[in-house]
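Fold sample X.
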Amino acid sequence: MTTASETPKAPTIDMKFELVVIPVSDVDRAKAFYTTLGWRLDADFASADDFRVIQFTPPGSPGSVIFGKNVTAAVPGSAQGLYLIVSDIEAARNELLGRGVAVSDVFHHAGDVYAGTDEPYLFGRLRVGGPDPDRGSYRSYASFKDPDGNGWLFQEVTARLPGRVDTSGTTFTSSTELAAALRRAGAAHGEHEKRTGGQHDANWPDWYAEYIVREQAGEPLPS
């Protein structure tokens, strides 16, 4: 049982997670692959013949990946379950297919059916082909690997769970994400107008804003 004296204090400074180290065996091959993905090359630094570090940042991401020579002792290909959050799983998959990258079909997991932890499964849950039938947020995936076998997952997130975003404000990392949110708000507002007799709502900007903020915060949506 946790007592008041054992309750952790709220942190007083920001701690922003910004870098993940990817272990690779061939630095130039890895650089070519992540360039093919369309990620931004931030740095390529070398020191003598025994050290090199390369940094890439995915589009719209606040965090980056680094790899290189003598950067990590981890076994090349051992980085698995690296998540890339996207607002449209099909669009993200098609983007990489168009760049010549092998990507799995979209899949979801079979509820609480656990069957193991190897590649056909996700957190021990059996993979089922196709997106989540209800297209629920956090429930549709696609996977791909870099040349060393480091494993990446696209995860479709359209509405954040409570506490997963700063509810003091709504933030979008790209125009694509904002456009997708506006489309969802527009569809919901169309249903709202049907319920209210189909009359034009002059306050639709306020309705859209409330819908988007509530959706991001994981709060009940306006009806």
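Fold sample Y, listed below.
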Amino acid sequence: MFAPGNRWRDSGILILLLAALAVLIWWLSEPIGAVLAAASDVRAWIVGFGPLAPLAYVTFFAAQILIAPLPGSFLSVMGGYLFGFGAGLALSLLGVTLGVTLALLIGRKLGRPVLERFFDRSDLIRWERKLRLRSPLIWFVLFLFPLPDLAIYVAGMGTTPLRWLAPAILLSRGIGILVGSSIGMATAHLPPALVLLQWVLLLALGGLAYRFQRPLRYHLLMNLRRSRRTVRTLFRTPLGSPAE
């Protein structure tokens, strides 16, 4: 699309896109403001429950990994919006730790006979093909992108030691929770126009990441493996030895 010989055309398209985005933000700023005002009242009502509100949130976050189809990324945004960045991040991490740990243990201890009762058999077979993946690094890269929670059960069915598998999955999911908590906090405090701009950019970047997830996973995995080899080489090289 953006060829070197068409700079004027490309510049015109970019200007038109920016102008359309500005008009969209101006047009929707008032209704978005009304929605945010209503959401602020709901947040005050939920937080008003005191200690029960964080407890209910953590329980629901863990439960949605085990049984509910609600995306965890949406819940992390909700946590940042309801409780602020720090508390929302901590509660979301606690919830995802409980949910992922239980899902891995169910997959490891109970296995396929139990999972077939709750998940479609074809989906289960498709994900079972990844059981040959033994590297926690590969699982880390996989879970950086949106995956069904069935993948956590299947990962637990494999032979990768849980002491390495669980931190790999939690670290990758934790990165998404960090982003979601930041977005939720910003949504609670930014003016409507900036909230709309934030979500437009987020959806655009998320769509691109989903569209090109395979090459992104490949390049990320290759770079991580290269970095790991470099670190291992540094630690194995005796002090004072000449560099290769």
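Sample Y note: The chain has one domain: 10-227.
Also: The chain has a mean pLDDT of 75.
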